[in-house]
Structure formats: C-alpha cells, structure tokens
Please model this.
Amino acid sequence: MAYRIGIVGVTGAVGQELLALLAKRKFPVAELRPLASARSAGNKVAFGGKEWTVREATPEAFEGLDFAVFSAGGSISTALAPEAVRRGCIVIDNSSAFRMRDDVPLVVPEINASALDGHKGIIANPNCSTAIALMGLWPLHQAFGLRRFFASTYQAVSGTGAEAMRELDAQARAWARGETHPAKVYPHTINFNLIPQVDSFLEDGYTKEEMKMLNEGRKIMGLPSLRVTTTCVRVPVFRAHSIAISAEFERPVDVAAARKAVAAFEGAELCDDPANRRYPMPLDYAGKEKCGVGRIRKDTLFDNGLSLWVSGDQLWKGAALNAVQIAEALHARGRLVRR
Model:
C-alpha cells in the first residue's frame, strides 16, 4: 500500500530532509505533492526518480492526499492544517501551533506511539531540543522513575534555518580574512560566540524555547508533575544539538544499569567511554538517526541523580525523522487509509 503525501515547506531545510528520509527509509509513496509559497510554485523537486512540480499551499491543494507533513511555521500550520483535515488529509505538524492542545497528540514514536490511536486529524511533532533530550531521559525514566531535571542546551544554527547557516559561514569566512560580517539572523554575532537566547523572552525571564522542555516533556512522557529548568543557548555549530542534563529519579540509580538501559533503547546509541575519549559530539551525530548518549555519571547534587550528555541531529530526530517515524507508526497501527 502506497500513499499520497503532501509536504508543506518542501523547499526549506526540513522539507528537503523529509524527501531524503522518505527515500532512505523506503516509505511507500504513490504520489508526492510538494507544497510551498506562491513564489516557489512551478519549481521542481526530485524524488523517487521523478521530478515533481511544486504547488502553492492552498486549502484546495490537500484534496485527495492521505497525509501531509507541515514544516513551514506556525502561522501556515494554523491557517492550513484544519483545511487539510476537512478534506480528509491527516496532518503531521512540525510547528508549535498545536502541541499543547488537549485534542492533539504530541508524539515521539519510541515513547508514546499509542497516542496516535486517538488523533483527530492533526498530530504534533515536538520541539527539537525536547525530542533529543528525551532520547536520553526516557530509558532512564523506565529504569528509575524520573522526577525532575536541569538541562542546558547547545543548539546548532540549522535549528533557525538555512539563512542562519549562511550567516555563520559568512561570519567565519570574514573572520579568516580579518573582516567582519554583520549579524542579521541573530541579535549578536554567532561566530566564535554563544548566545543565551533561543526564541523570545517571557515575563518570567525564561524563553519560549526553554518552557517547551517542561511542557512538552510532561505531555509526551505522561508526567504532569515533572519539574524542569532549562537554559537554551545558540552555539556556532552548523548541525546537531547537544544537551547537558542533570536528573533526579524516584529510585536509587546505578551507572551500569543506566548505560544498559540506554543501550537497549531503540532511539539512542550509547557512546560512553571517557577513558578513550568517546562521547557524543555534533560532528558525529549530524546525519544519524539515533541520538548519542554518554558522560553518564552519578550526579553530585541530586539524591538518586544522574548527569548525562546527549547529541542528536535536530533536523532529523528533532523534525523530519520524527515526522517520518510518525507516518510509519500510523501505517503499522492501521491508522493510515489509502484513499
């Protein structure tokens, strides 16, 4: 059984990764309908040995589709996702527009695929940092029972988009020439710098990005009392986010058991050999489906605590890959219907 699939934002960074992953994972595609803004309409994208013409994303463009993946921002999702659903098209949305709605499942398939059974047409993909952090935390929660955690993120510029990647590249090249290149995407120069702001600030001093780790983590893991504090930092790395985590658990922890739990988890790869300087790094986990988890050790602050380090490709597990995995889970659970 092959499906008619739409990709909204097909010309963007996540859209391009979606095409590559659908092909790589051999997802059954009968028709690809690339959708984007009016200025991109008429362009061609290659997929499955064919060229497909990009159409403008309008309500009518979803007629006859089985499902569509949205990767064009919250305003587009808010406007068009309900229109797609009205036309019988399931929506897998990468924006934050629907994540915290009670009637929309927020899904990481390795954790809560069963939530897909209750969807009402829209399924939300989590924030990139949340998805990557949970690849380290979920197997430890299963082993010891998670109570709370601190997280500090080290977020690559590709999380902002292609223009941010070009800005870092231009600033690095300018520096090598003894010149400067102005900051336009970010409020400050990102080359050789760290910017402790991802997304806009809220009244309490946290950013929207930082609160996603708390709110989305609670919903995905089914832990309404989970306590989380996060500081999100943009770093001069092109691709793959990293996260330092200190977590407290309900039951006594054991480092060997923690490593065993991570190694057995389908979403993670244990990379934890400090004596040989083996630990997850962005350069090694860009373009990998699993997230790397390492530096697992007893935490010196928390009782029953562990500290760990996670790296993962936020364009993949944090966006495109998780969306494809949701589609695969829908197919496996008989929740996708070929129209």
DSSP finds nine helices and 14 strands in the chain.
